[in-house]
User: What shape does this take?
Amino acid sequence: MYTIEIRDMPARTLIGLPHKGAYMEIGKSFEKLGAMIAARGLWPNCGPVLGVYYDDPAAVAEADLRSFAGADWRGGDAPEGFDSVELAAGKMAVLTYKGPYAMIKSGYDKLYGEWLPQSGQTPADAPCYEVYLNDPRETAPEELLTEICMPLA
Assistant: This one.
């Protein structure tokens, strides 16, 4: 049902907005980010949209969860009004999830709960992130594609 590959992923510089609270509410930050990028004509300098998730929701209270709604930035210094996050290059376990964002936890359960313990791999001390491969405004929820990227040591 899920494809998991080990890949060498590139370093990325993201511009975006921090989000605190329930991960399932980060969509509001993505909407604001998209509007800011569009209003300033910055999309030509952006690659894929990504979400960075810093905390384990099983270990951190929902109100304290930290995440980042970002876009891959290819334009030099971060424009005023945006935060910047650097993601290191390296080996990643990448699970390709197909379906609505509301059900994405099943992908994490497969990656962290089933695949990782059997893989012989060790996660790196770095946040996982999601790469959104299509646009939820133009794609039916059941057709959404997301790469869940777990950095490996």
